[in-house]
Amino acid sequence: MKNFFLLTLLCVGLASCDISDNDVDPTQSFLKIYDNNTFNSSFVPVDIQQTADGGYLVLGSTRIEDSDFTGVYVMKVDENGEFLSEQNLSTQYISPAKSLMSINGSFYFAAMRDISYQALLFELDDNGNLTDSIELNVTRPMFASNVNNEIILQSYNHGDRNTEISTIALADPIIISEPTKFAIGDGDGIDLPIFEHFTRTGRKLPFFTGKTETGLYFFNGFYRFTISMVFTNLISDNDPTGVLQGQREDDGVSTAIHLTGNRFAVSRFNRFGDTYILPNADIDIANKIGIANDLVGNPFPELVPDARLVLKRITVNERLVLIYGGDTRSGQIILMAYSPDTGELLGTKYLGFSNPYELASFNATEDGGLVVLGSTAIAGRFDRFSIFKLSSAELQEFTN
Amino acid sequence: MKFNYLYFGVILLSIVCITPHQVMGQYNAKKRKKKNTYNPRKPKDDPFSKSQWWLGFRAGANLTEATPDERFSAFSPINYQEEENEKKYGSFEKLGGHAGIEITYFHQRFSFSFQPNYRRQRFIYSNEFLWEDPNDANNRVELKYEQDHQLDYIEFPLFIKYDLTQTRLRPFLQLGGYYAILTSANKSVEVSGADFASGGNGPFENEKLIIGAEDLFLKSSLGVSGGLGFTYDVYNSRIVFDITYRYGLNNITNAENRFSENQLSGIGDALDDIKLQNVAASLGILFPLRYITKNSKSFDAVN
To answer: Rounded mean pLDDT of B37-63?
Structure first.
């Protein structure tokens, strides 16, 4: 009997280890849904960045009752994901463009004025307060990226029917380049899709900008009537070094990151709404008549039609990993991790249950985890921001 | 689930094995009495005469309440107070059940009782949400999420009992503690509400959604317990009834999986850090072991 009790006590001791190990840092992993109980309010997330205090800044937009456009909205949350403050700039500024960029301790994004559509670059502090706004010499900003503290901005000039690329160096003083123009061509075929992109009433168009390690710029936007991935030195107008053409707004490249040389991680879409992923594709950047449809990749019927993927290079446990994010037909966010060297699929992770979720963006965090910004429709109808924070262990689990 | 069947199997086997021995033991005891086989040694002289081992089985019903230590939610409100949709816990509302065996060592009014059992405990909470339009009273949606949790444990409680009297009907007090291992857990949510915006006037109720929730809870649960009851001797067996209160000492929520493994986090659910309180009523029957041993021919099993 004595042995029996000793054995029981030993079992209890071993089995109850989970009680003592149950202290978890709440900043490591969470899901938050940011609810506003006003019936008509609606929020569209754009991008997220971690701030120096461990919290997060969210760039988004919100519905404006008397406008077709959505207004600029900035939200600050703490390191646990709890709401702290909001800045609703929607009465003056509309259609914030992807991305929210962290440069030298401040945060920048591009948006435009209502009515004039004049583009501005906004500067935010850690708390999401607007500290500066800079008038840019372009209209209708569509996408901005930060490459080594240089902002590459894509915008649309409706009057001249051009896609325009500008660079902004955040030096003292700030140097804003003259926009390099790429003619879309005559005709009003692309007016409606661009308008619907800005008003967020139609398909989200896959605009992006970037730069290779050799200094070659690239963008995905309208050029010669089609969505095209264009390579350029930004020296003169309408003079790309290479083009990967799509077909109108119906097929083309949807995301791309430069890996090395002619190697790119890419995704493309076709007119049937299918999405193909090519984590290590060879693109001839000197070919002026390349066809996006010629890129062979893995189809992902699991993704929603015309999926707008987010592609980023994330360091996981001192190893570079490509993460593609998108929306599934079942209303979840999917993250797919690939090796940039071999193109091998390392793992997938699904986020969101019960209510439908859509991805806006994701970024690495200081603790080695990942923060994922999305939207969800509470009760199937109220569009609200949501943030998933994955711990470094959770990130490693699906990227190994 | 296989484990549950196995456990029930062990209990059943124990009962099947024990019961014929008890019946035979009682039969033999009666025979001995008839034959007037008498051991002149008085029970009080025997150091073991005031001691006894009892073995039997018990079953009953229980009610549970969850108490939050620290609250969590997947909702972070922007323009209203967090308390408005805070969880409201039901207090000992949902009936659970338990069954197991009891092994008790009795000595001079004191008993040491080990009562391993399989138990199902249930607790509930609900959250309410409201969306309205300040300019149009018809634009209004009310939702209520009612969440029912069903936790199955194998519990190993140990009690010290003290008999208040030495009569045939013996009231007793008991104090002890328990360790329990979670074997399965389910969680269901029922959404109801009123949707005036869609033209509805009355309440609606959606289909219940049930999910496995084993990963949301810790495997281990520890606590203290106390209660009162009585025993009643019938022939050479003892009927026992008790009401026991259990107070959980540890947070049973798995903090690591609070959001990541919760399929209902998508609708805003996140388990709080909770401790369980449980009130259980049990009825059992115990059989003495000692009179069937070689050296206890004359022993009066129940005194």
So the answer is: 71
* A66 burial via Cβ count (<10 Å: 0-12, 13-18, 19+): exposed
* Nearest-Cα residue of chain A relative to residue B84: A37
Domain locations along chain B: 2-292
User: Domain B2-292: which CATH class?
Assistant: mainly beta
Q: Is the dihedral of CA A191, A192, A197, A199 positive or negative?
A: positive
- A301: its two tokens: 């019927």
For residue B72, CA distances in Å to A37, B123, B256 come to 19, 17, 13
At residue A287 the predicted structure's pLDDT band, cuts being 50, 70 and 90, is confident
Cβ of residue A14 closer than 8 Å to a chain B Cβ = no
For the segment A33-65, what is each residue's pLDDT rounded down to a tens digit? 999 999 999 999 999 999 999 999 999 999 888
CB contact under 8 A, A354 and B263: yes
* Predicted model pTM: 0.87
Q: Would you list the domain boundaries of chain A?
A: 308-400
What is the model's pLDDT at position B267?
84
pLDDT tens-place string over residues A145-200: 999 999 999 999 999 999 999 999 988 788 999 999 999 988 777 888 889 898 88
Q: Is the peptide bond before A173 cis (omega within 30 degrees of 0)?
A: yes
Question: How far apart, in whole angstroms, are the C-alpha atoms of residue B79 and residue B87?
Answer: 18
Of A22, A34, A394, which is closest to B251 when you measure between CB atoms? A22
Complex prediction ipTM: 0.88
Cα within 13 Å of Cα(A345), Cβ side: 11
